[in-house]
Design brief:
Mean pLDDT: 80
Protein name: Cytochrome C
Helix content: over 70%
Structural class: mainly alpha
Strand content: under 5%
Number of domains: 2
Low-confidence stretches: none
Organism: endosymbiont of Galathealinum brachiosum
Order of helices and strands: HHEHHEHH
Strand order of the largest sheet: 1-2
Oligomer: single chain
Length: about 140
């Protein structure tokens, strides 16, 4: 009798493991997280952060040399800000809850700062004063961790 109980428990365990293996992690997450929760893979976060870092670096280099009467530089700055906006939006996962708590707590302000910098850069003559906030925000956020 005791052998059959152990056998049943073992069979149940093996069956559960086989089902869990076939379902996969993505399917299990659907069952364990709420509908408004977005799971962001660490490798995706790292990839987006690398892209953001390169974009911020390019933005800083362009802005450092920028003249308020150079339309080409103005368009480059606006384009870089747009790219950063897109990356930040992907990191925010559409403003839903994510497993990236630190990012979630700071990304909205970063998106707002990018929007302000972009708005100022579009004026005539362009005002690049807000770009420093974007360039410095990486260091501010990463040193506070």
């Amino acid at each position: 009798m005791q052998l059959s109980l152990k056998h049943r428990a073992f069979t149940l365990l093996v069956t559960t493991l086989i089902i869990a293996g076939n379902i996969g992690c993505a399917q299990v997450r659907k069952l364990t997280y709420s509908e408004d929760f977005t799971y962001v893979e660490d490798r995706e976060v790292k990839s987006l952060m690398r892209k953001m870092s390169k974009g911020v670096e390019r933005l800083g280099q362009i802005a450092e040399k920028a003249s308020t009467n150079n339309r080409t530089q103005q368009q480059q700055i606006i384009s870089e800000l747009g790219d950063l906006q897109s990356i930040a939006a992907r990191l925010s996962a559409g403003h839903t809850q994510t497993n990236q708590l630190f990012i979630r707590d700071h990304i909205e302000q970063f998106i707002t700062d990018i929007g302000e910098a972009k708005m100022f850069a579009k004026t005539t003559p362009p005002d690049y004063s807000k770009i420093g906030d974007i360039v410095n925000s990486c260091e501010e956020c990463h040193t506070s961790r």
